[in-house]
């Protein structure tokens, strides 16, 4: 998993929409693919323009995430999101302003209204997991 500080520096260094796109596509390659068995309806995030799957596992109070998408750009966005929350407690994750954290990563030009809805659905699933 890419660490937040390195990822933030990478994305903030982008000077154009094309740079950001290339960086997100490069980041997308670092996200391990989910197996067909993991790409089930229960793991699918509702409200995303592209297909997105998110698996949340808790181990000793720490949350670990696996995610995948059929869209390269969204996979890059998932790397950015997961770098913010990986290995944290639910209480820590719920106290974070994830929207503000993502805004600092220079992604606004890629978050079209429909993509933003998908990202918000992902953030909600991360911050308010099913019991």
Automatic annotation (TrEMBL):
Pfam families: SufE. It comes from Marinomonas arctica. Belongs to the SufE family. Residues 10-127 form the Fe-S metabolism associated domain. SUPFAM superfamilies: SufE/NifU. Transmembrane segments: none annotated. This is SufE family protein. Coiled coil: none annotated. It comes from the Bacteria.
